[in-house]
Q: What sequence folds into this?
C-alpha cells in the first residue's frame, strides 16, 4: 500500500517521485510532511482533550524539505523547535520565507522562518501553558 502515490502528501513545490529522487529500494512514495514529535509519537496518538494549550495553538504536522520519508514510515517525525528552514530535524519548505503547518484544529498556517523561537516552542507543545499571542 505504501507504493501508492498520495498527492495530498506531496508538496506542490517538490516535483519529484521518491523512487527517482531518493532511490528508495522499497518503492515507497514520499510524504513531504511530518508529524510534530512533541505531540505525536510512533504507536501512540494524542487525545485532543489533552491538548490543553488549545488546538488552534498546537502544531500537529508540517512541511519538510529534506530527509523525506515514505508516507507510511513510523519514524516520520520532526521537532518544530529546531526552527523553520533552519535545521533538517525541524520543519522546512522548498520555498523561502517559511513553511506550512497543520494545527490541531485542522487549519493550515504559514509560519515565517523568522518566527520568535519562544512562540515556536509554545506552538510545538500541547500542554506547555505558554502564552502565544499573534503569530
A:
Amino acid at each position: 500500500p505504501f507504493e501508492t502515490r498520495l498527492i495530498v502528501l506531496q508538496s506542490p513545490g517538490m516535483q519529484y517521485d521518491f523512487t527517482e529522487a531518493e532511490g528508495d529500494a522499497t518503492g515507497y512514495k514520499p510524504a513531504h510532511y511530518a508529524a510534530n514529535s512533541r505531540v505525536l509519537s510512533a504507536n501512540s496518538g494524542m487525545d485532543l482533550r489533552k491538548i490543553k494549550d488549545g488546538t488552534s495553538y498546537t502544531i500537529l504536522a508540517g512541511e519538510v524539505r529534506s530527509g523525506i520519508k515514505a508516507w507510511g514510515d513510523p519514524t516520520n517525525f520532526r521537532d518544530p523547535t529546531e526552527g523553520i528552514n533552519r535545521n533538517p530535524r525541524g520543519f522546512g519548505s522548498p520555498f523561502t520565507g517559511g513553511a506550512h503547518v497543520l494545527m490541531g484544529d485542522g487549519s493550515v498556517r504559514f509560519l515565517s522562518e523568522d518566527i520568535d523561537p519562544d512562540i515556536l516552542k509554545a506552538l510545538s507543545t500541547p500542554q506547555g501553558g505558554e502564552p502565544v499571542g499573534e503569530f
Q: What stands out?
A: The chain has two helices and seven strands. The first helix runs from residue 18 to 21. The helical segments are 18-21, 117-124.
